Amino acid sequence: MSRRQHFHPLMPSLAIGCFAVVVGLAYFVVVDAAEAPVRIDGGWSPWSTISSPCMRQIADGSWTLATCGGGTRTRIRSCTNPTPQGLRPKPCVGEDRITEACNTDPCDMTWSDWSACSANCGRGNKRRYTLCAETAGGNLTDCNDLGLTDQAFEHIKECNTWNKNNCSSPCSGYTCMEFANCVDVSDDEDPKVECVCQLGREMNAARDGCIIPPPKPPTPRPIPTLAPAVKMATTAVTKTASTLLIIFVGTTLFLFASLRIFDDDRVIQMNMEIALILAHIALLLPSMHEHKEACQVISIFIHFFFTACFMFMFLESLHTYSLVAFVVKKNGLLTKTQNVVVGKLKSIYGLYICNVKSKAHLGAGARTKKKKNVKRRKLIKTFSSFCLFQVGAFPWEWFFSRSPST
Fold first, then answer.
1. How far separated are the first and last CA of the chain, in Å rounded?
2. Which pTM value belongs to this model?
3. Which pLDDT tens digit goes with each residue over 308-345?
4. What CATH topology corresponds to 55-102?
5. 334 with 317: CB under 8 angstroms?
6. Which residues, at least 6 apart from 287, have a Cβ–Cβ distance to it below 8 Å?
7. CB distance 56 to 64 below 8 Å
8. Whole-angstrom Cα distance, residue 253 to residue 10?
């Protein structure tokens, strides 16, 4: 059997079908390639060679041409080399303009005059600031107003306008705390005030209020002393004077007693002389500073006798006045016994009052000596009761029962 006899009849049709498939595939590939979109990323153009004018922003927010003192100018570029094209192209990356400093040479500048002091009659501040010109040789104005912050400076210094003679007192309108008064203590440099407490009050530690001061301890009283030479001379003079007085007054007393002159006038004078002699005898006693109790007893006697002497002087003046003024015709206002009793009791009572006052004053500063003060108070009460008994129990009716002699 021959080879042509073994060729299958469907093979030509199969070959034609395969060719058609290959041609179709090639067509679709060519068409898709022709219709696919193109993507072109953007690129920057060169920077512009012509820049904007040199400008500067001033204080009000506006812009002005800057010929000095620094300004800014701007150069630009565009995303046109190439322009972004196609499907999702990449844009240009970066700034499309830049700012450069220009005309940085400083402008003309000078200091302004000093301003007035900020304080009236006191310490304050003066200030001055820099003035700048927009152009060389131009008008000068505040550098801040021109936006020249790098050349804007301010100078501040202290000033004092206080004048003690021309300015009003700082106490005017100044109020101190309660119980205090404002005192002007200004000097030539500054106004000053001081609040001084009044009405016996004193300033507290914080100096913001006046308080009643606490009671002060009693001032210690040292025993008065004299220089040895002065003390010797003083003692000699005192003792000599007391001795002479005792001699002369005693002689007078002896003479009137020898002559038995005891009328109303003489009785008063006799008691006065006796009290004076006894007081000076007590003064002639030796010093007993080391014996406190004895010294106190002598001091009491001296005060009592001198008080009695002055009391009988008063009774003598009363006796003389009653006769001179014709209150009575003779013998005086009181009898002999009345004059003696009144003079003695008045002296005792006056001495008692002084003693009570002095003991009360000393007792206020010596509260720790309680037992001793109790004994003293008992003694004073006993002495007081005796004196008051004598005065109260004395028949005052008898004092004035004797009518004046006619």
1. 223
2. 0.38
3. 888 888 888 888 888 888 877 777 778 878 878 887 78
4. TSP-1 type 1 repeat (2.20.100)
5. no
6. none
7. yes
8. 201
